[in-house]
Amino acid sequence: MLYYAAGIALLTALASHDGRATIEELRDPRTIGTALDVADNPAILADLYRLGHIAYEPDGRIAITDAGRYDLYQHTNRRAKLHPADPLSAGPLEPDDDGTATYPAIEVAGVLVFAYVDAAGTLQVSVHIDSTEPWMVRPDDTLPITVTLNGKTLFDDSRTDPHEGASTS
Fold this sequence. Notes:
Elements lengths: L3 H13 L3 E2 L1 H5 L1 H4 L9 H9 L3 E3 L5 E3 L1 H13 L2 E3 L21 E4 L2 E7 L5 E6 L17 E4 L2 E5 L10 E2 L1
Antiparallel strand pairs: 1-3, 2-3, 4-5, 5-6, 6-7, 8-9, 9-10
Helix pairs in contact: 1-5
């Protein structure tokens, strides 16, 4: 992609807006959360369209395609952060400004996943979703999530319809 960072910014904005928006909506910081100058750059739009990452709808909206979502997801995974445990900390579970926390965590799309052995010798896995990137949150304020253990699905809420119930195994 010609302008990778700008293209990802546009795909993120579209994903945050239920996958489709007009140029005017992309320019409005009240709608997307930040004004996007990239929406005014025809080269970025042309590049994303050529790659199949966006499509133009008959009503004039720009829509993110499956290929665009895939690229956004891969970019997000590549940006994952490891927050090491701070051996001197007895403080909060969440990472401090320097990125260290009481327990080790990995952060993906703003979601923190902690895995640690507690004082009783039990492996604890804790998922904190309060800082999730807005484009990951569904319209009903839930998060698509699947939990597996050794390949067996324990919980699956990856459904696309937020009104369906989650499944557990």
